[in-house]
């Protein structure tokens, strides 16, 4: 997957401080310990009056921390993605269906290339990257390479003890949005930076070598016959 950490200049109000993130434990779909003692005790939100359960995608001017309440114990699953990453695109329909499976939890997604300071802050150096927050504190990271609705449901259940609705599946509408499942053209800023850095280094080394050659006695006349 592409990296979003160097995709855009850091926002001034964000402090690039690494937050402690507890690594996700190995998934145990058949275990009973996780069901008895969830790792994260989430306060489930009141769903009364909510007709449509969907995720919210933050735009470039929205700050993630404004959507996370530090004084609450409710839980939010946050996806860091980029629209030109094929792994993000393949994950999209599965992540789009999650709010229907867990209506009492919240789901957010943000373009890591537009929020590079957050990528640095939470150590999301590659996308897609999924973090489970309790309030404003990151509690666990989804570390599986198999990113499907089923593995995501297992991750949430093992961390929170909250069971997914059994009748939820990936539907045709989930391929359409809100998270895009079709790749869009974009610039891989990290790759571009790497190429420019390499080119600059080669140019510097070439100039430096020529300067040293002319300083060596006798070298300045080697081409004069």
TrEMBL record:
The chain positions of domain Thioredoxin read 22-161
Where is the region Disordered? 1-38
Provide ranges: composition bias, Low complexity.
1-12
Q: Indicate the transmembrane segments per the record.
A: 189-207
Keywords, A to Z, come to: Membrane, Transmembrane, Transmembrane helix
| PROSITE patterns (alphabetical) | THIOREDOXIN_2
- A Pfam family matched in the record: Thioredoxin
What InterPro entries has UniProt attached to this entry? Answer: Thioredoxin-like_sf, Thioredoxin_domain, TXNDC15
CDD domains noted in UniProt: PDI_a_ERp44_like
Q: What's a single GO BP term from this record?
A: cilium assembly
User: Can you list the GO cellular component terms from the UniProt entry?
Assistant: cilium
PANTHER family named among the record's database cross-references: THIOREDOXIN DOMAIN-CONTAINING PROTEIN 15
**Under which name does UniProt file this protein?**
TXD15 protein
What organism is recorded for this protein? Atrichornis clamosus
Traced from the root, the source organism's taxonomic lineage reads: Eukaryota, Metazoa, Chordata, Craniata, Vertebrata
